[in-house]
Each structure stands twice: as C-alpha cells, then as structure tokens.
Amino acid sequence: GATSFDFDREYLTADELVDTSAEMPAGSQWAYVIFERAVTAPAKSLLIGSVLDTDVHANKCRIVLSGRVLSTIDPNNKEEVGRLRVFKNKQKVGAIKRVV
What we know:
By secondary structure, this protein is mostly beta strands. The chain has one helix at about 80; strands at about 10, 45-50, 65-70, 85. Helix content is about 5%, strand content about 15%.
C-alpha cells in the first residue's frame, strides 16, 4: 500500500470506497475521517474503527474501517483543509429551444 499522501495531486471525491480491481488497485483510495473527539495516534500507525453499539454476541463483523494514518489535518483549520485538492465532477444538461 501507499506510505505517504501527496498533497500536490488532485483527487476525485467519492461517496464510498470501491472494491479493489485492476482499475482501482489497493492503496489508490484515500479516506478523510473526522472524529467526534481527538484521537492520539502516531504517524503511520494502523487505525481500526469498529461499531460499538451492537450486540457483541451477534455473529457479524463490527469493523467499519482500517488503514494507516498517513497525515493529520485539523478540520477546524481552513488552511490545513485547503491543502486537500479534492474535486467532484459536475454536469449540467440542457436543451436549445431557439437559435437567434
């Protein structure tokens, strides 16, 4: 997987992560995660998130995310958030009714 995040590249935003494939190999997707409370984690540490409000005896996976902490950003600092070069494709469709 990737070991650093390149703040100089542009990244397409997505509503969800997709399964890895030839077009989307492991390490080609990133997640910007904002926590309710501060989390102390050293750089490059493994982060595992799980659902805690479910029955621990239920026979289902409670892990919702896992990955490496490659960089930290204070979501309240506009300058730090501004370093993320994220875009979303937008498209408008219309019809020409009359040409003058």
